[in-house]
Amino acid sequence: MHRHSIIIGGTKGSGRALARTLAAAGEAVSVVGRRTITGAELGHESIRTFSCDITDSAALPGLLADIAAQNGPWTSLAFFQKFRGEGDTWQGEWDVSIRATTNIVDLCVEQTAGQGAPEGGRAIVVVGSVAGRTVIADQPVSYHAAKAALEHMVRCWAVRLGPRGIRVNMVSPHAVLKDESKDFYLGYTRLMELYKEIIPLGRMGTSEEIAGVIRFLCSEQASYVTGQNILVDGGITLQMSEGLIRKALNMER
Q1: Residue 181 lies inside a defined structural domain of this protein
Q2: CA nearest to 102, candidates 162, 156, 171, 29
Q3: Phi and psi (nearest 5°) for 85?
Q4: Active site amino acids
Q5: Mean pLDDT throughout 143-154?
Q6: Of 78, 115, 154, 250, which residue is most buried, by most CB within 10 angstroms?
Q7: pTM
Q8: DSSP conformation letters of 135-151
């Protein structure tokens, strides 16, 4: 069975990096996003793109049927979508992060019911955030609640879908250098110097590094890994806040 990855919200950032990486390796890749974009614009002409509002539940069965008709059964499913509204909008977070993910997972599981599993099984990866475990000052409560809920949903799915040969994991990044924001971060010298001081690995992560972890979780090499949340944060969340403040204020002895 050939490998086919469906990437939800894969037109930017780490989702785009994952699509390019998988396509370059010869895998079939289907990218779903709100905006219309070509595979060539994403970095590889073989990437098939589909424009859809994933909060429209009625549109999802047709979307997934169209994807299967063009690229065959899915072997990996990765979720990168993010609610981009303003304010503490609980309905928006629910619709984009929780309900859409649940609907797509349910439909994809139903779609492959009774089909043979590929080597290493099928894999689902949900991209979360360190906000599911720690508090990020500039993010609303609804964002934190959604990320924490997704982490436990991943555990439930891992238990319930394991007997069907489907592994489910989460990847939770910290601040990431993306193509869309790289110029801002690299031009913000004081912030870069602060990250160098407080992140144990001394730098921000990149979209390619996030994509690399997700690619591993979708591969045969991770065939016995399920229900996990891997923090891809350079080690920053390992430290007590007091120690981070001391470093930031140069109070280390």
Answers
A1: no
A2: 156
A3: -75, 175
A4: 143, 147
A5: 96
A6: 78
A7: 0.92
A8: --TTS-HHHHHHHHHHH
